[in-house]
Write a structure and sequence with these properties.
By secondary structure, the protein is α+β, with helices and mostly antiparallel strands. It is 26% helix and 23% strand. The strands form 4 sheets. The chain has a 4-stranded mixed beta sheet with strand order 1-8-9-4.
Length: 303
């Protein structure tokens, strides 16, 4: 029987932490492909600058100072945790190998946690407001055609409705080529393994249980709606080209071209086969496939 000493407890934590870090490193999260990671130092961040795409204009006379439009879009951090209890009898009986896979899985879960927040946000975008108070995917985002902002805003869509009421599996075309990606992952505290392993801890005394846990603070939110286009239409070449064309035509207030360049096609696993046929095959029905390699395919497990 093993004697529980501070040195043994320290050794256990070192081993379990190694399992945790190994699980993190083996995971392959996808969120950074479509979301910018913004470090947070407070309970929430307010993104008042959303709605202004920076641009350069000819310098004539004094500088023209454009005030940032205060949209007041706030992303509030939330707490997440996972905890494992190690029975004291297992330590005394040298029955510790059963816990290594648990800590490895905890590490993997910590690594993919941002995926579980970011990708469902795309689907939620049909019913969740972004910085301009419209749903992130909507048919009436207001864009002012006049540079001075005095004109009447026109409605711009980053989804297709047409009054048809499409109900198919949603798929998304994104521009991830710019500094700020379409979605935001806001990180206040990164996940790390911590332990409560003093032999006089209440849980050890009352329940014979050493506790190990991971916690983090973060949140997910929307960036520029102009960099994303949603569909519930059939995923086919015509509809995909239609999305690309509509995104390429997006303008900022004043009619300035935004230079949107769609780069990523995000699909659920159920549409992977269709997406790969569209993007990866050499030939379409009649000729060479103009969509080949046009977009990166991202099959999102947590969409």
């Amino acid at each position: 029987m093993a004697i529980i000493t501070p040195a043994l407890i320290t050794s256990l934590f070192t081993g379990y932490n190694a399992n945790f870090e190994a699980g993190k490193s083996e995971a392959q999260p996808q969120f950074t492909k479509i979301a910018s990671v913004i470090k947070s130092t407070t309970a929430s961040n307010t993104y008042g600058w959303l709605g202004k795409f920076p641009s350069l204009a000819k310098w004539v006379g004094t500088r023209v100072i454009k005030s940032m439009q205060a949209h007041g879009y706030t992303i509030t951090n939330e707490d997440y945790e996972a905890t494992v209890g190690v029975d004291r009898n297992d330590i005394e009986d040298d029955n510790l190998g059963i816990y290594a896979p648990i800590f490895s899985e905890m590490g993997r879960a910590a690594a993919i946690h941002p995926d579980e927040m970011i990708f469902p946000l795309l689907t939620a975008g049909f019913t969740t407001a972004c910085y301009d108070a419209q749903f992130f995917f909507d048919t009436d985002h207001p864009v002012n055609p006049d540079a001075d902002g005095q004109g009447v805003a026109v409605s711009v869509a980053n989804m297709v409705d047409d009054g048809v009421g499409y109900t198919g599996e949603p798929w998304f075309v994104l521009d991830t080529s710019k500094s700020l990606k379409p979605l935001i992952f806001q990180q206040r505290k990164a996940p790390a393994l911590i332990a409560m392993t003093k032999t006089d801890d209440e849980a050890v005394f009352m329940n014979k249980q050493f506790r190990y846990g991971v916690d983090c603070r973060d949140a997910a939110g929307f960036g520029f709606w102009q960099m994303a286009f949603a569909n519930k239409r059939t995923l086919n070449a015509d509809n995909l080209w239609d999305c690309i064309a509509k995104m390429r035509a997006f303008t900022a207030d004043g009619g300035r071209k935004l230079g949107i360049k769609p780069t990523v096609l995000v699909v659920p696993p159920s549409l992977e086969k269709t997406a790969r046929r569209l993007i990866e095959r050499e030939l379409d029905a009649n000729s060479s496939n103009a969509l080949k390699g046009r977009l990166e395919i991202l099959v999102a497990d947590y969409l």
